[in-house]
Write a structure and sequence with these properties.
289 residues, alpha/beta, TIM Barrel, eight-stranded parallel beta barrel, IolE/XylAMocC-like, Xyl_isomerase-like_sf
Length: 289
């Protein structure tokens, strides 16, 4: 298993700046805690090739965090409107092209917004499965895997695909070859689900994990919802100890055999180097490195 860090949520300037991106990738290599970097980048093809070469030279695998542009740009691969769905699939194919140029081993994707009015989960599952089948075929011939990240449905960002039962319905009768699931601990906690039960239900398709925290008990907190604070956050749903115990329990049960990348995800709020150092500290404790 590769141990990863979600770099651009900590260093957002790297999204548009190849110099910053190069610096934080080099820093990650030198830190010797992580051997995978999860990133999102907007730049030229030449700069994307630079990232690919850095990945090869440093030995770090890279994951393309496609959830950011999908949410930001209203890409909706679960849309009930067939024209909108096809247009969104084409946009995702464009992101796949970027990910391949950067040498990424995985691209994380998400559904579109939850359906307003018509809450037919069966239709959402059918539309999402159809889109994933098309992306699956598009990825063949590359080493890239498409990884679906379930998100909160009843709280921000209000996406259609999140709850375990619906994710199961999408995957259980599928014949995907290059599609799996990114299991984000904070998202399932935001959904009000038991993360261990959800993990066990989706285990056959989980190839990728995000260990992440959230604050859901206090709706007045500025960190309420999908904010990904550190595990040292006092009012967080998880502490370093509880997320350590969850990870180690899943590992001891053999539940992580299909997981080839497990990453820590923290979103910085100023003082980015401090957040990076905290991520390194927490990672060593959780993974017992």
């Amino acid at each position: 298993m590769k141990y990863g860090i979600c770099l651009t949520p900590i260093y957002p300037a790297a999204i548009n700046d190849i110099t910053v991106m190069s610096q934080v990738i080099e820093k990650t290599k030198n830190q010797k805690v992580f051997n995978c970097a999860e990133i999102y980048f907007e730049g030229s093809k030449e700069e994307e090739n630079t990232i690919r070469k850095m990945s090869e030279d440093t030995g770090l695998d890279t994951v393309y965090l496609g959830g950011l542009p999908i949410k930001r740009d209203g890409i909706d691969i679960s849309s009930g409107d067939e024209t909108e769905r096809k247009k969104s699939v084409d946009k995702c194919k464009g992101h796949i092209d970027h990910a391949v140029r950067m040498g990424c081993v995985r691209i994380v994707v998400a559904s579109g917004p939850d359906w307003k009015g018509d809450k037919d989960k069966k239709c959402i599952a059918e539309q999402m499965r159809k889109s994933l089948e098309e992306l699956d075929i598009y990825c063949r011939g590359s080493r890239l895997e498409v990884s679906v990240e379930p998100f909160p449905v009843r709280t921000d960002p209000y996406l259609a695909v999140g709850e375990t039962k619906l994710v199961q319905d999408i995957f259980k009768d599928s014949s995907f070859r290059n599609v799996g699931i990114t299991f984000d601990t904070s998202h399932f906690s935001q959904l009000g689900e038991d993360i261990e039960e959800s993990f066990q239900s989706l285990k056959p398709w989980i190839h990728h994990m995000h260990l992440a925290n959230c604050v859901m008990r206090d709706k007045t907190s500025p960190l309420y919802g999908d904010k990904h604070p550190a595990f040292s956050q006092k009012d967080g749903d998880f502490s370093i100890e509880t997320i350590h115990d969850f990870y180690q329990r899943m590992k001891s049960k053999g539940a992580l055999k299909e997981v080839d990348i497990c990453s820590l995800e923290i979103v910085s709020r100023g003082n980015e180097n401090r957040y990076y150092d905290e991520a390194c500290r927490e990672a060593k404790m959780i993974w017992e490195l």
